[in-house]
Amino acid sequence: MASLLRLHALSLTLTSPRRLSSRILRSTSPASPLARRLSAAASPEQRASETDLESGLYLVATPIGNLEDITLRALRVLKCAHVILSEDTRHSGKLLQHYNIKTPLLSFHKFNEREREPSILKRLHEGEAVAVISDAGTPGISDPGMELARICASEKIPVIPIPGPSAAIAALSASGLPTDEFTFVGFLPKHGRSRKARLDVSAHEAATQIFYVPPHGIHQFLSDAASSFGDSRYRPCVIAREITKLHEEFWRGTLGEANEAFAIRQPKGEITVLIEGNSISADETPSDDFLEHELKELMAEGHALSSAVKLVAEATSAKKKDVYALALRVFGK
Predict the structure, then answer these.
(1) Distance CA 145, CA 155 (A)
(2) What is the pLDDT of residues 17-44, one digit of tens each?
């Protein structure tokens, strides 16, 4: 009898493998690779308390281009929050739909931040978990969220960062420029005088400078930067575009070369510009050997002595009269 039962079981396996295998797959496999990882990573206790998100303001970083660049923690918070504040609900809706997240979206951008804040604070004081996302990257970093986080912190409401993508850090890490010290400037002021004043400050800083530039403003930015950075002809810079997307690009050269190269280009997509810091601090007087070397290079490129003196003085902390005296001693009149 036992042998007959084994033969019967064997015949079932041989005659209907597809039906059995599909039934097994449906009953044991989560819906997606991500779901499988979530299921495997979470303990029974974690899965049971998945919906128990503590009250607070959650600043959730989201992908800057590639939808795979989101953390498992970010997905859990977005799924379990009572509401998600979104810079553009239509744009963010695509991300939530991709990951099958049903949490309600509420628009929250620079034009309605102040109007929304009282009702959001009321919900937080009542014990809700509120998530904030921007169109791309980390909320509050050149995006809505900074002021709300400040108010929450002042009112002792927990502010919880959910770290992830940031265009500035991604660009810096792959730029090849010094990363031990950097200044994130973000978008420059729109007013011309204020823009120049900020660029003048950056031109003298020793740290790598990081700027966000809209695609339609790249020509103006490079022109203004070349003017403020007197040593633009040899100051290294990197222009990162469409980071993590299909047409990702890292352009490398000097600021002067960038000004020439992009004068005939109209790039698309979000742009991050990185400029290497000033190798000579404002308090450090360059040596005569250094100044002589710079003068020689400029004159070899066709600059007149007076023009070379002016450019070297602007690019260093040396006084123009001292550079001119050196030029006369070395090169004559």
Answers:
(1) 15
(2) 333 333 333 333 344 455 445 444 554 4
* 61 contact partners, CB below 8 Å, separation of at least 6: 71, 74, 137, 138, 139, 162, 163, 164, 165, 166
Model pTM score: 0.71
DSSP states along 231-281: TTTT-EEEEEESTTSTT-EEEEEEHHHHHHHGGG----S-EEEEEPPPSS-
Residue with the two structure tokens 């899965």: 47
Q: Are 312 and 285 in contact (CB under 8 A)?
A: no
Select from 186, 173, 183, 175 the least CA-distant residue to 212.
186
The DSSP 8-state label assigned to residue 137 in this structure reads: B
Of 312 and 183, the one with more pLDDT:
183
* Planar angle of CA 164, 136, 52, nearest 5 degrees: 55
- Reported as a single tens digit per residue, the pLDDT across 160-169 is 999 999 999 9
Q: What is the pLDDT of residue 31?
A: 45
Q: How far apart are CA 259 and CA 266, in angstroms?
A: 12
Cα 322 from Cα 318, distance rounded (Å): 7
* pLDDT over 90 (residue 322): no
Helical segments of the chain, H only = 2-15, 17-28, 33-41, 44-48, 72-80, 89-98, 113-125, 146-154, 167-175, 192-203, 218-228, 255-261, 288-300, 305-315, 320-331
Residue corresponding to tokens 């930067």: 225
